[in-house]
Amino acid sequence: MKQRPFAQVDVFTTVPYLGNPLAVVMDGTGLSTAHMQAFTDWTNLSEATFVLPPTHPQADYAVRIFCPGRELPFAGHPTLGTCHAWLQAGGVPKGRDVVQECGVGLVNIQRQGTRLAFAAPPLRRGGPMDEADVQLIAKGLGVARQDIVHHAWCNNGPQWRGVMLGSAEQVLALKPDPDVLQGLDVGVVGPHTQGETQFEVRAFFPGNNGLAEDPVTGSLNAAVGQWLIGAGLAPNSYVASQGTCLARAGRVYVHRDAQNQVWVGGESVTCIKGSVQL
User: Fold this and answer.
1) What are the residue numbers of the active site?
2) Of 240, 271, 219, nearest to 14 (Cα)?
3) Plot region of 11 (φ>0 → left; ψ -120 to 50 → alpha; else → beta)
4) CATH homologous superfamily of domain 3-118+265-277?
5) Is 158 left (phi over 0), alpha (psi -120 to 50) or beta?
6) Which residue spans of the chain are classified as CATH 3.10.310.10?
7) End-to-end Cα, the chain, rounded Å
8) What is the mean pLDDT of residues 45-73?
9) What is the mean pLDDT of residues 86-114?
10) Is the model's pLDDT at 84 over the cut of 70?
């Protein structure tokens, strides 16, 4: 074991403890997959990341991303939180953007003032879901089938199934059935009619005790942004709120640029900084 630089970062918030926390081990060299997974499970956080030297010549660093029980090829809040910690630790990018190497390949990260934004990876699967899946999700969410006004596959590594309800109020009122939604990654979005955010988002996925809800989810918002903007259901730029039902105040900034690249951004704050023995 050795002492390794460590940070715990709160992502998609400017106020500590109101976003989605992330454990970042700044030096993951020499750690096996089993060690990384065991540490991730021990943290009881939704994700932990391990920074490694890049293998691709364009990358500034490589990262492995874990959630309880499995490794992820990509995840949004770990991407922004890891980049935030890397920059705070003195990391200097080779170019204008920071380039992260991870399971899906290279991910560009822009610095937009105090905010970081990652380029949403291409969808691995999009388009409408099968009607049987939609009916199952409606049952699991406790809503009528007609309450789901739009739906799509939102697979960008995590196999999100996205559904849109008629309003943010419907999204906030959901009480999903973990038995029905067992094994599914489900993202739900609904429009706000007033206020600072245009959409409310909730993310449900398999957890250690059945169904879990993620406070703020970068990968889901990336996929949903591509879906909604591409389908004309959202403007080229919008702000989504997430985590409201978990007493969080996540804010996700989604923008499609002139080259049709969708960027997903948010603020991050470091809550714990020190070292960890691994």
Assistant:
1) 47
2) 271
3) beta
4) Diaminopimelate Epimerase; Chain A, domain 1 (3.10.310.10)
5) beta
6) 3-118+265-277, 131-260
7) 5
8) 95
9) 95
10) yes
pLDDT at 157 over 90: no
Average pLDDT over residues 23-31: 98
Q: Is the dihedral of CA 67, 72, 75, 81 positive or negative?
A: positive
- Specify the fold of 131-260: Diaminopimelate Epimerase; Chain A, domain 1 (3.10.310)
**Residue 191 banded pLDDT, cuts 50, 70, 90:** very high
The DSSP code sequence of the chain is --EEEEEEEEES-SSTTSSEEEEEES--TT--HHHHHHHHHHHTSS-EEEEE--SSTT-SEEEEEEETTEEES--HHHHHHHHHHHHHTT---SSSSEEEEETTEEEEEEEETTEEEEEPPPPSB-SPPPHHHHHHHHHHHT--GGGEEEEEEEESSSEEEEEEES-HHHHHT----TTTTTT-EEEEEEE-SSSS-SEEEEEEEEETTEEEEESS-HHHHHHHHHHHHHTTSS-SEEEEEE-GGGT--EEEEEEE-TTS-EEEEE-EEEEEEEEEE-
Distance from C-alpha of 183 to C-alpha of 159, rounded to nearest angstrom: 10
Sign for the pseudo-dihedral over CA of 229, 22, 124, 186: negative
Tell me, what's the pLDDT at 211?
87
Structure confidence at residue 158 as a pLDDT band (50, 70, 90): confident
Q: Residue range 157-166: average pLDDT? A: 94
Q: Give the integer Cα–Cα distance in Å for 154 and 185.
A: 10
